Amino acid sequence: MDCIVLSNVVKRFGNVYAINGLTFSIPCGGRYALLGPNGAGKSTTMKILAGLIKQDSGDVSIKGMKPGTKQVKKFLAYLPEDPVPYRILTARENLEYFASLRGIPDPKGRAEELLELLDLKQYEKVQAGKLSRGNQQKLSLALVLIHNPEIVLLDEPLNYLDIPTQEKVIGLLRNLNSTFLISTHIMSIASRLTDHVVMISKGRVVWTGSISDLKAMGREDEPIESVVSRMMSNDL
Ligand SMILES: Nc1ncnc2c1ncn2[C@@H]1O[C@H](COP(=O)(O)OP(=O)(O)O)[C@@H](O)[C@H]1O
Ligand SMILES: [Mg+2]
Q1: C-alpha angle 80-124-147 in degrees, rounded to nearest 5
Q2: CB 83 less than 6 A from any atom of ligand 1
Q3: Does the keyword Nucleotide-binding feature in the UniProt annotation (predicted)?
């Protein structure tokens, strides 16, 4: 069964087509990257799936339901581009607050667990608005994943993180059993976190398939980044 389905989706801002006939689907349990250059329409796609904006035409469904419904929000996580935490609350208060909102039986325990897991313990008493953008990003991830969501949408999750923290977060995300869609413009991130890519440019799918098929399309010893840029440039 497909958990995420987009069919001929169009979204315009004024006379700019952010999404221009986008069609792809993700099977339940699939791990997919939405790969494309800046302005390709990745964040717009994520916002439509999160129910934040509505497409002008085309169909979108999540487990057969419309995005943004109460039912869908129960099992969905969405990491936006902007920081998630409530700025005046500390890191720990944010975690306990989100855990309570999500109806988690032991909010304090869950907060503790995530502080440990993401090395945020030293910042537990710091107001979120005072944290570095990288630590806000880590806290954002912890907040959106707090309820062990079944479907996870992450818009450029590794942005702002330094290399050791990226490694930590990659390890954590690889351990999730969720259906998974992350947007990125970096192929090496896609290949470490997912097994399929949906490559988009100018709001349309350029290519979709498994990362191993993508690698096989390269010339001998050709880096995967080079295969991707050739495929992207064919479209331009
Ligand atoms: N709220 C908006 N108002 C006007 N134009 C927008 C808006 N959001 C996105 N766009 C435009 O739509 C296109 C796709 O943007 P976006 O989805 O953010 O791309 P990506 O995340 O792949 O970089 C870009 O040309 C962008 O300028
Ligand atoms: Mg974006």
Answers
A1: 45
A2: no
A3: yes
88 backbone dihedrals φ, ψ, rounded to 5°: -85, -15
Residue 34 confidence (pLDDT): 97
Which residue do the tokens 């796609």 mark? 45
Closest atom of ligand 1 to 53 CA is 1
Structure tokens at 176: 């999730």
**36 in contact with ligand 1, CB cutoff 6 A:** yes
Which residue's CA is the closest to the ligand 1 atom numbered 3? 13
Cβ(47) – ligand 1 distance below 6 Å: no
Q: What CATH code is carried by the domain that includes residue 21?
A: 3.40.50.300
| CB atoms inside a 10 Å sphere around CB 25 | 15
Q: Is the CB of 43 under 6 A from ligand 1?
A: yes
User: Atom 1 (ligand 1): residue with closest C-alpha?
Assistant: 13
Q: Which ligand is nearest to the CA of 53?
A: 1
Q: From start to end of 145-195, where are the E strands?
A: 151-155, 179-184
Q: Look up the domain containing 93 and give its range.
A: 2-235
Between the alpha carbon of residue 127 and those of residues 39, 94, 108, 136, 144, the distances in Å are: 33, 9, 17, 10, 18
**pLDDT, tens digit, 9 for 90 and up, residues 128-177:** 999 999 999 999 999 999 999 999 999 999 999 999 999 999 999 999 99
Question: Residue 123, SS3?
Answer: helix
* Cα torsion 42, 43, 49, 54: sign: negative
